[in-house]
Task: structure prediction
Amino acid sequence: MGLATPALAEETQTWSAHAFGIKVGELGVHMKEDTGTYTGNATFKTTGLAGVLARIRFDITTSGTRERSTYTPHTYSGDIDTGRRQSRTVVDFSRPTPRKTKGDQTPASPISDAALKGAIDPLTMLWLTLKDRPADTLCSLKQRQFDGTRLVEITLTTRETRSSRIICSGTYHRLGGYSVEELKEMPITPLSVIYEPHGALWRPTKLKLRSRHGPATLVRRD
Result:
């Protein structure tokens, strides 16, 4: 009797970004999962008037291993253009402490090895936030994220049910790599994710956060 081929899951998500009451950008996320591995890519670009003024874009990729709901990145790469600065970064997550192997940007403040242990890359974190989930796993996220220059901790631990929706709320906490001025300006940013039922799972349909420029929202379009 032959062994069954492991199931392969592949998903593409489309999101629109809104700020100041208008659409300012588009986010695309593509993730492929095997029984023991995963790979992903995400792209963002500003659109319309926002694109003319800011021209912000990024293209990031990740790959790693997974065991049930635990994702362990091995390699992350990012190609980011903020309109003022361009950076290309590669981070090796296969070691106990992640290390940047490509990229010129230097952290504005030091980050200890102890603080980096267990951190994951931005795309793996994004996937943990935006993937469909069983109800009993919602609002239980507490994870550090490292992009090669900055370290943050993201939490979604407060749960609220409104009608047919579940809202998970938490914070985006800047920990290391930021300047003293950046940490004083807004060290902690509130954020929330709204989930709606989708078959046997719950699907994120909206993500809200407050930045120093004001509130911003991601809305699922696919």
